[in-house]
Amino acid sequence: xxxxxxxxxxxxxxxxxxxxxxxxxxxxxxxxxxxxxxxxxxxxxxxxxxxxxxxxxxxxxxxxxxxxxxxxxxxxxxxxxxxxxxxxxxxxxxxxxxxxxxxxxxxxxxxxxxxxxxxxxxxxxxxxxxxxxxxxxxxxxxxxxxxxxxxxxxxxxxxxxxxxxxxxxxxxxxxxxxxxxxxxxxxxxxxxxxxxxxxxxxxxxxxxxxxxxxxxxxxxxxxxxxxxxxxxxxxxxxxxxxxxxxxxxxxxxxxxxxxxxxxxxxxxxxxxxxxxxxxxxxxxxx
Length: 286
Description:
Elements: E1 11-15, H1 20-31, E2 35-40, H2 43-55, E3 60-64, H3 70-84, E4 89-92, H4 107-117, H5 119-135, E5 139-143, H6 156-178, E6 184-189, H7 224-237, H8 243-255, E7 260-262, H9 268-284
Parallel strand pairs: 1-2, 1-4, 2-3, 4-5, 5-6, 6-7
Helix pairs in contact: 1-8, 3-5, 4-6
């Protein structure tokens, strides 16, 4: 394993690192020479990711973590600081999704999605940002998704969580600028990436399952249902990026110092229409 210079030796913490986009980020920044701390709730896949990265010559430590749980994130931060003393790159990346009509969403549905997608980012900032500010160094990447700017029907909780992540990221950028801080933040906004998010219910905690609903598949990768979900998504939105492709774009975006980092233009028309509607309605209102 050889680094590319810019990130050589930096400590990178990645949530949701066991599979999908998180694993792609781990592979890319491991190849760039980072020392990785991999966090995920899916322990077997997390251990496998750390082992495979280690075999490739990457320093990778696995820390089982539930990003929705404050104590679990406290433990992650303690483990990182004990081992490395600091954090250079923080990837608040863990995410889940539920596809169903808003009218049928239960309290447990909302709690699960917002717990991971929104509170995971909140806890990540809470436990790591003060250390970065104290050092006046580091780069935070919040995975916001294109769904942080436009909406897709039947994804109310996911859309809401990602819009909130965009807002938090923009707020933090303004605060850092006001402080003349050297800490940077980016809002990573992928379009469609070929991940396991369509089967993310495999990691849904029992306490947040809906009574009467079928139990989620605990290892659905590669099964027919997961393939059909992915094919339907790609048929609707176009060809998906692989996690490796998305991670390459993210890597280059950080080198270029971009705040918004997009993987494609799948949603650009919807984004333009949304902003035009907002602007037109504003002026119509006087």
